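User: Predict the complex.
Assistant: Input components as received:
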Amino acid sequence: MATTTLDIFRYQPDVSDASYRQSFELEHPSDLTLLDAILKLQDEQDGTLAIRYSCRSAICGSCACKANGKTVLACMTQVEDVKREFETETVQVDPIGNFAPLKDLIVDLDPFWDKFKSVKPYLVPDGPAPERERLVSKEDMQKLFRESACILCAACYSECNSLAADPDFVGPAALAWGYRFAGDVRDGQRKQRAKLYTGEHGVWDCTRCMYCNERCPKGVNPRDAIEKLGGIAFQEGRSMKDAGARHAKAFLLSMRTGGKLNETVLVPFTDPIKAHLDIPFAIQMMRHGKAPSPIPHRIKKLKEVQQLMKNVKETI
Amino acid sequence: MATQFAYYPGCIAEFSSKELDATTKALAPMLDIELLPMPAATCCGAGDIAEAKPNLYLTLNVRILSQAEEMGVDILTICNVCTLNLRRANKMVKEDARLLEQVNEELVKVGARPYEGTKEVTHLLWYLATEEGLSLLEKQGPRGLNGLRVAPYYGCQLLRPSSVMGFEDPDRPQSLERLITALGGEVADYEAKSKCCGFPIVLAREAVALRESHVALSQSRDAGADCMVTPCPLCHLAMDAYQRKAEALNGTEYNMPVLHLPQLIGLALGLDRKVMDFKRHMVPVDRVLETVGV
Ligand code: SF4
Ligand code: SF4
Ligand code: FES
């Protein structure tokens, strides 16, 4: 048997508007999961303690919470492992981040579901239905393998740095689902989807903090899906339609002209109006030598690169 | 004999943050490192070329790896983003022989050398934050940082995804802390040291980016830091060049000098101040220089 102090975030709006923390001592077998630990507390010490769960086997995605600040699925995390990882005797438990708490560890998931729905998370095939089902090759399905594994647990959403700064960002899970359909050969809405996912708060709002790839308990790698959606957007002719896309386009232009990033091109190309309005900042940058020469640098063997840019085919 | 590396400073250190490149080059002999130039290397494409043209992104990065292979040395970087992109490409082709073959076909077609998959990519911080690295610093008999309170700022892409980076625990990194302490500084600890600086979207979504950098800037200020130090020139731009904008947007003052990692080392080892070119910083570093006594 092991003993653990669980320091739990409490919020009971029917009693008080203020949240507080409560410590529980728990004696438990050494292989107890965090979810079972909380359920044991609920059973033996405080019946009002609330957590959302269902499958208890990492499938339904409902039990995500923070253990010592790190988002995990409570049912696939053992208390002793958390203690070992963080070298502590106490496990601090909190609701997932980027959500409003409803009660204790239960949060209001409505914004998450709304964003999920906003990406049209279903196939919209083109043309009349075939007599039998629409067949997909193993190879084509393999391309969506990771994204298809998402259980909508919101662990990625909980840690997304862009979301913390902009609650309207559609977020990693919804975009992973976006790719799961935009990349499906049976879908007939690739162009429309490229448009849908790349406006404000979409693909280009991801700041590449990589938390989503790190935290996803299912190996979905949402950031990689976002990258693939960017590729689809470019293929579908959206390379100039948003400041984020133009930013990426400026990298390609720099690559072609000199092989290295040309920052002089980057700013005005990304957002010409803002670049114009931001002249005082540009002057300050220049004063500190941060405005590079407008004559692009040229790497050796630039021809190789220019030829690669012509030859390499994109197959997303 | 000095340890040789193919030196990949990345675009930012060569252009808008020249002080980082200059300091690294000046520091290298003191650390027994020889930096070999890579004149035919391209930009790593950051996340941008990856987003626009994923296959091209991979091919360009493998081309860089192949150049280091031809030189017979591993790559050393001084940028989080370059480290991630080069390592990621390296991992992708090392783990998938068919993919490597496809990429090499493209390289050979344009007359570039195919990659055999034998090289590694490391960051200066990683090279120095090991026992051997720290002993290189010790050999210099550090003059020390005189108790300077330094807030370590890792940023994201040197830590995550750990499956690609893997040097240390992304949730409890310690390499910068080890260096700060070894150099005679004090660590000002704060939670947001591994959160995002927002830089990748600062041109397209400035307000969102500045709300991100606010978290680390305000926390390091509240931790009583004399300065921040970062191993990434993009984090440096976000925290230094954009700091006044972040102050205006978030309605608060940070007044936080931000040092590049090699500058912190240079200060401790007594590197010529002129080389480190602190004039290029947007937030003055006077109080840092005063504390260290240079
Ligand atoms: S992508 Fe991963 S972390 Fe995000 S909701 Fe899906 S399973 Fe959960
Ligand atoms: S990589 Fe992008 S989507 Fe993923 S957590 Fe970071 S900002 Fe959010
Ligand atoms: S209870 Fe279903 S995932 Fe944890």
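The first strand of chain A starts at residue 2 and ends at 10.
Let me know if you want any component modeled separately.
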